Amino acid sequence: MASRPEGVVTATGVRRVFGGTTVLDGVDLRIEKGEVVALLGESGSGKSTLLRILAGLDEEATGEFTTFGSKAVVFQEHRLLPWKRVAENVALGVRGGDAPDRTATALEEVGLAERGRAWPSELSGGQSQRVAFARALVREPDLLLLDEPFGALDALTRLKMQALFGRLRARHGFAALLVTHDVEEALLLSDRLLVLDRGRIAEEIEVDLGHPRAVDVPGFNELRRRLLALLHVPADPEE
Amino acid sequence: MRLRPRRLITPIALVAVWEGAAQAGVLSPDKLPPPSKVAEAAWRLTLDGSLGLHLLESVERAALGLLIGGLLGLFLGAVAGLFRNGDDLVDPPVQAARMLPHLGLVPLLIIWVGIGESLKVSLVALGAFFPIYLNTYAGIRDIDERLVEAARTCGLTQLERIRHVVLPGAMPSLFLGLRLAFAAGWLSLVVGEQVNGQSGLGFMMMEARDFSQTEIVVLGLIVYASLGLLSDLALRTAERRALSWRRGLKAS
């Protein structure tokens, strides 16, 4: 560990057992500074469990895991407090006299500078999720933990949000662990892919596709097929 | 809450029919005096100050009882809702005691605290305690765990989570508890004030019954009802202010 001190996540042999079921069976994971790692896996493979452990929300996991620097979490649901206005939600837990300014900046970055006074119930699903991103950004995280953050959005909003994520990442340079079941999303947004299968990291794939990228860049489809196979999904309808 | 004039039609018509029937002699004035006589009694007793005095006495008892019962319910409900140990220790006896009809405790309460002021206040406090306790407890328990988790990831300490997530989240339930507590409180007061007393609306009514002044008995009932109505209105206004964030939810 001492030889590569710049990692924001180091985890070795992470195990988590629910009842008699082993969900994570010795996961090793390392995320470098500024690196976006996508975590794929079939449902029930333990992706979210691993993310929750790193977020500090699971006290019963065993193994060694450390995160360095500040971190923030965006969940699949926006999880905004309905009784606080948008700006108060973003500023939740932010300390220091410059909190209002930072909140305003974060809201501006997600394109909601005008909605600070709104109640969460007045926002659309996409807007709520953008507020959730602002709430994460305002903490200036070294590590963003994203648990299917676009999973509950409609297809068009999802595309816009993925583009927004790309821009925010380019500007802030945070590292991220992106839990997703969307193969294309993982390929579009990440530098490295991990496939979780039966509680272990079954495969690790570097994504050398450059930024910004689109689904029609050379090599994209090849990777997509490879990933789908790893996830036990036929890539073509005939198969 | 807009007052729609159409909603006033039936109440006014009913009062008119009541007045008409009394004037026509269909209703015996000893059994049910006409509204005009009740209004007359109200005016008379207001002028000589006795209605105001009795009213003040009753409101004081209700306020004191609600305060004691409410604070106790709030405190124990919060302890049981927030802490597992509190839940294990506090909830079982309260759930058991809840099954006792508290108005049936009057004979026992008379033995314990006598027939004076403490009886009335104790009854109101008992009536108010259970709805507040139960709704505080339920309000805290029903909070979306995912919101608490999100607050944790935002770096909120446990105390801050209680302040920013748990308490506001329990507010709607708490207001429901308050409204039920007020209703139970007034009811307890009516019962309590019929046991002895030198003042208060209940005393006024009992005394009037002894002199067959039916209109004062009816007046007492109307004042009790108005008190209930007014307190409910005040609570609803407070609720709308405190829970203004729900407006968007209701509309959708």
UniProtKB/TrEMBL annotation, chain A:
| Superkingdom of this protein's organism | Bacteria
Q: Does the keyword Nucleus apply?
A: no
Keyword match Lipid biosynthesis: no
Listed A to Z, the keywords are: ATP-binding, Cell membrane, Membrane, Nucleotide-binding, Translocase, Transport
Q: What's a Gene Ontology MF term here?
A: ATP hydrolysis activity
Which SMART domains does the protein's record reference?
Answer: AAA (SM00382)
Question: Which Pfam families does the protein's record reference?
Answer: ABC_tran
Span of domain ABC transporter:
9-223
The molecule here is called ABC transporter ATP-binding protein
UniProtKB/TrEMBL annotation, chain B:
Which BP terms from GO are recorded? Answer: alkanesulfonate transmembrane transport
Domain of life, per UniProt, equals Bacteria
Q: Kindly state which keywords UniProt assigns to this record, in alphabetical order.
A: Cell membrane, Membrane, Signal, Transmembrane, Transmembrane helix, Transport
The Gene Ontology CC terms held by the record are:
plasma membrane
* InterPro entries attached to this UniProt entry: MetI-like (IPR000515), MetI-like_sf (IPR035906)
Membrane topology per the record? Multi-pass membrane protein
Q: Signal peptide location in the record?
A: 1-24
Q: Name one Pfam family in it.
A: BPD_transp_1
> Transmembrane stretches, by residue range?
62-83, 165-191, 211-235
Domain spans labelled ABC transmembrane type-1? 55-235
> What protein family does this chain belong to?
Belongs to the binding-protein-dependent transport system permease family.
Q: Extract the PANTHER family matched here.
A: ALIPHATIC SULFONATES TRANSPORT PERMEASE PROTEIN SSUC-RELATED, ALKANE SULFONATE ABC TRANSPORTER-RELATED, MEMBRANE SUBUNIT
Protein name in the entry: ABC transporter permease
Which species is the source of this protein?
A: Herbidospora galbida
